[in-house]
Amino acid sequence: MHSLPRIALPKFDSADEVTSQLERPNWSAWNNPQVYVIAATLALVASLETLLSQEALKKLKEQTPPPSPNKEMRAQGIGNLLSGFLGGLPITAVIVRSSVNVNAGARSKVSILLHGVLLLLCGMFFSDLLNTIPLACLAAVLLYTGYKLAAPACSSPSGGSAWPSFCLLLPRWRGF
After folding, report:
1. In degrees rounded to 5, what are phi and psi of residue 164?
2. Which among 21, 26, 65, 96 is most buried, taking Cβ atoms within 10 Å?
3. What are phi and psi of 155, to 5 degrees?
4. What range(s) does the SLC26A/SulP transporter domain occupy (predicted)?
């Protein structure tokens, strides 16, 4: 029987092990001009993804008061600075995660925080269990969520169909 590829998640037995694995900033990289090109590209892509997610989320659920793009960008910038100083990945809002929260009945932004905390705890303490989940199952969940986002039965506020949105997801599905 062939073993399937697994995601190698680190295992931590204590908080000291977690802090010992954090990357420290490499200050010599500030002298490399390529760093600024990559940083600007990542910032632009992350900002566009966040703003597009915010617009799509407005269509899924009316929010009172309406979300402020300026506040969202400020929070994302601060979060990315902190993440970078800790050696983490860039952060951005993602419509798939947000739509799952809305469809699950989330009413406040606490759901986003809870989602992140649960992911962190699962990654830190249940990595062996997470490694037993077949990647095909995770892909199926992502495909189903994407389908629900662009379901052809939905209609846009302008009265047209959601087929253009559905067609935008096809290249992502092809990647699987």
Report:
1. -60, -40
2. 96
3. -125, 155
4. 25-149
CB atoms within 10 A of CB 78: 11
DSSP 98-145: HHHHHHTT--STHHHHHHHHHHHHHHHH-HHHHHTS-HHHHHHHHHHH
Torsion of Cα atoms, 154 then 159 then 162 then 165, to 10°:
-130
Q: Dihedral (C-alpha) 140, 146, 151, 156: value to the nearest 10 degrees?
A: 180
Q: Reduced to 3 states, what is the DSSP secondary structure of residue 155?
A: strand
Closest of 138, 115, 134, 123 to residue 88, by C-alpha: 123
The predicted-structure confidence for 111-156, as pLDDT tens digits, reads as follows 888 888 998 888 878 888 888 888 899 889 888 877 777 665 554 5
Report if pTM > 0.70.
no
